[in-house]
């Protein structure tokens, strides 16, 4: 063969080899690309529908602001993760399982790689039977579709992206709501027993001493942008129960929704091509609220929604500050771990059931009014609960960031312990995730009593549940490390 022909063939094969490494857009096929997308669907219930969040049921009379299911999908070419935060007080696991199944069928993302949680707004449509609020099966079916759609739409919105995270601190808006009582003083609970702590004791209560636990002022921030710099999504996390201060009968996403609106303004994203989705998730806030019962903290005065907006603006300012110093990466590893555990249920004893029957026999009903009547009704409901219930525990890895997910109203001590003892430098916990299994106090807080420990559909797990859950989450995080 002619030497010139050999040289030409060799050069051609070399050129073809180089070209084969690139796709039609000139990108390297071996280059790792991070894709991300976000979307939101409206989940506002109809007028007249039940509102979760109180011991008595309320009916929707109007809508102050729409409630949403907000989804994020992150795809690194090797794995895909999906997160959905919904403006609900709490939501059944069965509803979310249906949503995950739908999302999987539409996107192919494994259900184990999906985390779906509630914000815990107390002014949303009822999605769980808690106290005297009962969900409509038709609304639950609607939620399973719309929450699943949030994942599917976020998946379709994926574009090449970069991601980063950071942490700030906003101590002025979080306070432990459980206060110790002076020695010799107790608070009578609905079962006739005596508690050593009181939730929301009032500023001028002379019998309170100090909060029974700490707070977590940290604000966690995950920011996702397109390679062109457009804002795709913001996932924040703050350990604040909710704010309230809504109008009677009004649907509202509470400060979670107001925070998203404020971030939209601060980031000036109205004119960008990519839809921006701002999300505030609930951290470990089972014993944390926005009222300082020492009376020292400033509380904005005004009409309905004034405190919601004040808190949202304050936290948004800190998040915006954190975002100025985030280092973004155009590719990160993605992984998840999930296990199901079984925990015991604190079911009532026979004598407690008999006491409840006598209280309910005297109730005028059908709307129960006193604490004793309401908790007697809860006792009758709890007698039919199974001895054990299954819970989903999850942990996710986004590069060097870890996120845990727990289906409870988690006490702040638990979240602080996880942050301190987990193997990752950066980590936070999302509560009310993948179902609802009530409050999660520590055994030490159980011993003190108080509202969050009172047996009901909102608090029924075994006394040592937090220890078992913490151990399992730590195991999952170590697997990811």
Describe this structure as you would to a colleague:
The chain has one domain (35-178, 198-347, 385-480). It is globular and about 70 Å long. Helices cover 30% and strands 26% of the residues. The protein has an 8-stranded mixed β-sheet with strand order 7-6-5-1-8-15-16-18, sandwiched between helices. The chain has helices at residues 3-20, 93-107, 137-156, 254-267, 306-323, 350-362, 371-382, 412-421, 443-448, 465-480, and strands at residues 35-42, 50-51, 58-59, 62-63, 68-75, 80-86, 114-118, 159-169, 175-176, 178-181, 187-188, 194-195, 197-199, 208-211, 218-226, 231-238, 250-251, 277-282, 288-289, 334-344, 388-398, 401-405, 409-410, 426-430, 439-440. Helix 4 crosses helix 5 and helix 6 packs across helix 7. With 481 residues, it is of the alpha+beta class. The N and C termini lie far apart (58 Å).
């Amino acid at each position: 063969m002619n030497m010139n022909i050999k040289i030409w063939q060799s050069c051609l094969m070399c050129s073809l080899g180089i070209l084969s490494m690139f796709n039609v857009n000139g990108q390297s096929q071996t280059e790792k690309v991070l894709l991300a997308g976000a979307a939101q669907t409206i989940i506002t219930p109809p007028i007249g529908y039940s509102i979760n969040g109180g011991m008595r049921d309320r009916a929707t009379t109007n809508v102050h602001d729409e409630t949403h299911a907000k989804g994020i999908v992150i795809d690194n070419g090797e794995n895909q993760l999906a997160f959905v935060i919904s403006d609900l007080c709490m939501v059944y696991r069965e509803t979310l399982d249906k949503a995950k199944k739908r999302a999987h069928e539409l996107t192919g993302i494994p259900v184990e790689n999906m985390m779906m949680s509630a914000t815990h707004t107390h002014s949303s449509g009822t999605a769980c039977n808690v106290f005297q609020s009962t969900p409509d099966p038709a609304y639950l079916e609607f939620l399973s579709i719309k929450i699943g759609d949030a994942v599917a739409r976020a998946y379709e919105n994926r574009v090449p992206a970069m991601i980063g995270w950071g942490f700030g601190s906003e101590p002025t808006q979080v306070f432990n709501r459980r206060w110790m009582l002076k020695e010799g003083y107790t608070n009578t609970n609905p079962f006739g027993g005596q508690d050593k702590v009181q939730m929301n004791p009032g500023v001028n209560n002379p019998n309170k001493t100090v909060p029974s636990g700490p707070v977590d002022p940290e604000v966690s921030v995950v920011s996702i942008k397109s390679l062109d710099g457009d804002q795709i999504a913001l996932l924040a996390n703050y350990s604040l129960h909710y704010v309230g201060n809504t109008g009677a009968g009004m649907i509202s996403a509470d400060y979670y929704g107001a925070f998203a609106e404020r971030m939209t303004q601060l980031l000036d994203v109205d004119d960008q091509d990519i839809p921006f989705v701002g999300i505030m998730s609930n951290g470990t806030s089972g014993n944390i609220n926005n009222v300082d019962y020492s009376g020292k903290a400033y509380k904005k005065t005004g009409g309905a929604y004034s405190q919601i907006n004040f808190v949202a603006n304050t936290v948004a300012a800190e998040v915006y500050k954190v975002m100025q110093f985030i280092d973004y990466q155009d590719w990160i590893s993605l992984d998840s771990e999930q296990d199901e555990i079984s925990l015991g249920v604190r079911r009532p004893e026979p004598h407690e059931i008999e006491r409840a029957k006598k209280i309910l026999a005297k109730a005028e009903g059908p709307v129960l009014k006193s604490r004793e009547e309401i908790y007697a009704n809860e006792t009758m409901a709890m007698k039919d609960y199974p001895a054990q219930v299954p819970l989903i525990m999850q942990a996710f890895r986004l590069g060097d960031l870890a996120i845990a997910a727990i289906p409870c109203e988690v006490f702040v001590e638990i979240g602080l312990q996880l942050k301190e003892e987990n193997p990752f430098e950066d980590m936070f916990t999302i509560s009310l995730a993948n179902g609802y299994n009530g409050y999660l106090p520590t055994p030490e807080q159980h011993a003190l009593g108080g509202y969050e420990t009172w047996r009901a559909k909102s608090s029924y797990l075994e006394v040592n549940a937090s220890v078992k859950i913490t151990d399992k989450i730590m195991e999952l995080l170590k697997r990811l490390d």
